[in-house]
Design a protein that fits this description.
Length: about 140
């Protein structure tokens, strides 16, 4: 049975995307720029590369631009991060400190499948493309 809040699902999807991507973005800014706090560990090439993906991918997801392919790529990055950095410390994410990587992995996989929501540049591009198709059809 649908509830009143289910009518807001496209907007809530956008809010989830924006807040998850914003948090993810700050993981990258810590690695690359020391903001909002310095990164705790010395950067090696793997962490530096992850920081680039976190900043660039996080920014694209905040904007909702190229959401599906970017989210799919970041989901894989987080699966890789989980198994490389956390999985070897035991099975349970709460014990191996891999909860964030696991959650990002599956939230981003959801965005890859569900799309960005209505508040996104992707949705704006789709609306403009639809309007252009309508204009073209009317001209013919």
């Amino acid at each position: 049975m649908p509830t009143q809040i289910s009518g807001f699902a496209p907007q809530i999807l956008s809010v989830l995307r924006i807040f998850a991507a914003g948090s993810f973005f700050t993981h990258g800014t810590m690695k690359l720029f020391g903001w909002p706090a310095p990164f705790e560990y010395p950067l090696n090439p793997l962490l530096y590369t992850a920081g680039i993906f976190e900043v660039a991918g996080g920014l694209l997801l905040i904007l909702g631009l190229f959401t599906r392919p970017v989210a799919f790529l970041l989901s894989g990055l987080m699966a890789f991060a989980y198994f490389i950095a956390h999985g070897s410390d035991g099975f349970f994410p709460v014990l191996n400190h891999g909860e964030a990587a696991m959650l990002y992995c599956f939230v981003f996989l959801y965005f890859a499948a569900a799309g960005p929501g209505v508040w996104s540049l992707d949705a704006l591009r789709e609306r403009k493309a639809g309007a252009n198709l309508t204009d073209t059809a009317q001209a013919v």
